[in-house]
Design goal:
Layout lengths: L2 E7 L3 E8 L5 E8 L11 E2 L1 H16 L7 E8 L5 E3 L9 E2 L7 H11 L1 H8 L8 H11 L1 H6 L2 E3 L1 H10 L3 E3 H4 L5 E2 L4 E2 L1 H7 L8 E3 L4 E4 L2 H7 L6 E3 L2 E2 H8 L7 E6 L3 E7 L11 E4 L6 E7 L3 H11 L1 H10 L3 H10 L9 E3 L17 E3 L7 H25 L6 E5 L6 H11 L3 E3 L6 H12 L6 H8 L3 E4 L3 H29 L1
Parallel strand pairs: 1-5, 5-15, 9-12, 16-22, 22-23
Antiparallel strand pairs: 1-2, 2-3, 4-7, 6-8, 10-11, 13-14, 16-17, 17-19, 18-19, 20-21, 23-24
Helix pairs in contact: 1-6, 2-4, 10-16, 11-12, 11-14, 12-13, 13-14, 14-15, 15-18
Length: 505
């Protein structure tokens, strides 16, 4: 039997999984957690050595008793945008500033003024955002010049793990897209961005396509991890790009919606098309020569959890008494409310909003609340409001000419038949699910299999290993009803935007 390994370096922990290369079945998996540090309000940092310790621990567990010759490749996935700085000896200079750190607003202004907004979109397909790597690099140069002076290499989180496994300085196009230093259409470092921002090219690793073998496991790493020396390590992918492979979103027309704490709508495209308003991200995807677009709802599942924690004491008690998931009880209540929740709308902007507003001052609200409304209406309004917010992403994709008809639903929201049905009706499209868990680790393993020659292409590997099942079909009459409420929903935030900003001040 041949095996593949996928390693997903997440924000809360690293998952390492061993897969049967013939069937894609997960054979073993282990997740190791680590802390996140917030030295100041709005900052977020992690120690890269914590990631490495988690990788060593989980690799030793999943490779125990497995013939090293049977492990044909290792794939890497992980959180994007983090900045790991290494000195001349390959040692970490300072904690990594990770994706959710918000300290770089002034550096984003600096990038926009230096490069120009239109040129940023032309070269990197995205506006300057605090989440991206370029602004973090400039922040360190502006505020910690002594650390910047010592820096000899800048790596992304998963690529630091590659360095520890192989000794090679390498990245791949999907993760590099989130640095804002990559020429998205050309799939290479942008000499113009580097020149304008005065960042030396030698500080950056080599860029590969995601399934290409970037290096092999070193003797030192072999002794620590249980992997055989010389085991190939593929380029891999950023978390969402690898998850797209793990869900089979690797062809034109395929897309996925993830309803987790946040919500993501991700679509595959053969064109490097960008939204000039910067409302969605365009990155290189893990399929060579292809791209993806991605929109984000900040508080998707978070909205329902917030409502549960603050207003569903009786449902929580009932769930504990019956030994069932409280969300099943909340779903049953929401079903008693009609489409439109008796003319009640919910805007899920508990954490500001990215798509389509790009506004951290945006705030959530129930709109149309009256004495007629009960808890079932409010629960249904939350489910529908999140679906409307996710539809905002798909509407922008349609403006860009991107097909999202082959929609897959994953994440915690896919466990709710009612939520899946609402999303299908709001989207005007049937939604499907994958039987297996999918995810970044699985996608990374598939990429490693392609690199190792077990599959002829990423598309062929996904066709072979990933199946789908129907989840929810849209009803044209329901869709028409939702269109009326969605039309009102889209008008609410623009009407109150100024008030939200005044409230924040």
């Amino acid at each position: 039997m041949n095996y593949l390994i996928g390693i997903d370096i997440g924000t809360s922990g690293t998952k390492t999984a061993l897969y049967d290369a013939e069937t894609g079945k997960e054979v073993r998996a282990l997740t190791a957690e680590y802390p996140l540090s917030q030295p100041e309000n709005g900052w977020a940092e992690q120690d890269p050595l914590d990631w490495w310790e988690a990788v060593v621990k989980t690799l030793r567990a999943v490779t125990d008793g497995i013939d090293g010759n049977a492990i044909k490749g290792v794939g890497l996935s992980g959180q994007m945008h983090g900045v790991v700085m290494l000195d001349a000896d390959g040692n970490v200079i300072r904690p990594a500033i990770i994706w959710c750190d918000g300290r770089t607003a002034k550096e984003c202004e600096e990038i926009t003024e230096t490069v120009g907004y239109d040129k940023l979109i032309e070269l990197t397909a995205n506006p300057a955002l605090t989440g991206f790597s370029a602004s973090k690099i400039l922040w360190i140069r502006n505020h910690e010049p002594e650390n910047y002076a010592k820096c000899r290499k800048i790596l992304l989180p998963k690529d630091y793990i590659r360095y520890k496994l192989t000794g090679a300085f390498a990245t791949e196009v999907s993760d590099a897209s989130g640095t804002q230093l990559l020429h998205i259409a050309g799939r290479c470092w942008s000499d113009e961005m580097l020149r304008l921002l005065k960042i030396e090219r030698d500080l950056l690793p080599e860029v590969y396509e995601s399934p290409v073998i970037s290096a092999c496991v070193s003797e030192e790493a072999s002794a620590l991890t249980g992997l055989k020396k010389g085991t190939p390590v593929a380029g891999g992918g950023g978390d969402n790009a690898a998850s797209a492979v793990g869900t089979g979103v690797v062809r034109e027309g395929r897309a996925f919606t993830t309803v987790g704490t946040s919500g993501v709508v991700f679509a595959h495209t053969s064109k490097p098309v960008a939204d000039k308003a910067g409302r969605v991200h365009t990155f290189c995807c893990a399929v060579p020569g292809m791209w993806h677009v991605m929109g984000v709802t900040q508080a998707a599942g978070l909205s329902l959890r917030w409502f549960r924690d603050n207003f569903c004491e009786s449902e929580l008690a009932e769930a504990e008494k019956k030994g069932v998931d409280v969300y099943q009880i909340m779903d049953a209540e929401a079903k008693t409310s009609p489409i439109g929740a008796n003319r009640l709308l919910y805007l899920p902007y508990l954490m500001g909003e990215r798509t389509p507003h790009l506004d951290p001052a945006a705030r959530g609200m129930f709109f149309g609340l009256s004495a007629i409304h009960g808890r079932p209406d409010l629960i249904r309004a939350v489910l529908e409001g999140v679906a409307f917010s996710l539809r905002d992403c798909t509407e922008i994709f349609r403006e860009m000419g991107i097909d999202t008809s082959g929609m897959i639903l994953c994440g915690g929201g896919a466990k709710s038949p009612l939520w899946a049905k609402i999303i299908a009706d709001v989207y005007h499209t049937d939604v499907r699910a994958i039987p297996a868990s999918g995810g970044g680790a699985f996608g990374a393993a598939i990429l490693a299999g392609v690199g190792a020659g077990l599959y002829p292409s990423v598309e062929d590997a996904c066709d072979r290993l990933i199946g789908y099942r129907p989840l929810a079909s849209f009803d044209p009459e329901n869709a028409k009803a939702y269109d009326k409420f969605y039309g009102i929903y889209r008008q609410v935030y623009p009407a109150v935007r100024n008030c939200c900003h005044l409230l924040q001040e």
